[in-house]
Design a protein that fits this description.
By secondary structure, the protein is of the alpha+beta class. It is 13% helix and 32% strand.
């Protein structure tokens, strides 16, 4: 069920639920990050390894190209403009072992002020969708894990919704 305004980027048929990240994919992400000039800041083989960009915005692991930065290792997120933090760090709740939040570089695909997850039948106010499988920033409880989304407090979710636009870069590290 859709409620409120929303902006589509890709047809729903092209968005799929991911089962999770196998160990070889996580290792590949770390190796790819190192090959492109990043620095791993965790033990080898550790799926929680954070790859930090060489041109990282001070205080974040993300590059100046990102408009939104997520650090899964510290459970903190930032909004960035022209290589400077404009909001954050703020806490968030992310996915668990069964439904992890995917790491990588993404783009905002679409937004919805009010959205109800068809899969989980839960409200997702201020949704900013950025990864396959319906992964989004949205307002949600900080006490429970998500199904892969980045759940922010009410004020922060509204700020992320207002600032981020379709096509903006999101880095999840």
């Amino acid at each position: 069920m859709r409620v409120g305004k929303h902006v589509w980027r890709r047809p729903r048929s092209e968005r799929t639920k991911e089962a999770g990240w196998p160990a070889w994919a996580v290792t590949g992400l770390v190796v790819a990050g190192l090959a492109t000039g990043g620095v791993a800041v965790a033990a080898p083989g550790d799926p929680s390894a954070t790859v930090v960009a060489d041109d990282a915005v001070p205080g974040t692991p993300c590059s100046a190209a990102a408009e939104a930065c997520v650090d899964l290792g510290t459970h903190t997120a930032w909004l960035i403009r022209d290589g400077e933090v404009i909001r954050g760090p703020v806490p968030f709740a992310d996915g668990d072992v069964e439904d992890p939040t995917p790491r990588g570089s993404f783009r905002v695909e679409w937004k919805a002020e009010q959205w109800t997850s068809r899969e989980y039948l839960t409200q997702m106010p201020w949704s900013v969708f950025f990864a396959p499988g319906g992964i989004a920033f949205h307002e949600g409880s900080q006490r429970t894990p998500s199904a892969g989304c980045v759940k922010l407090g009410p004020e922060e979710a509204h700020a992320w919704f207002d600032y981020l636009q379709v096509g903006d870069d999101v880095e999840v590290r």
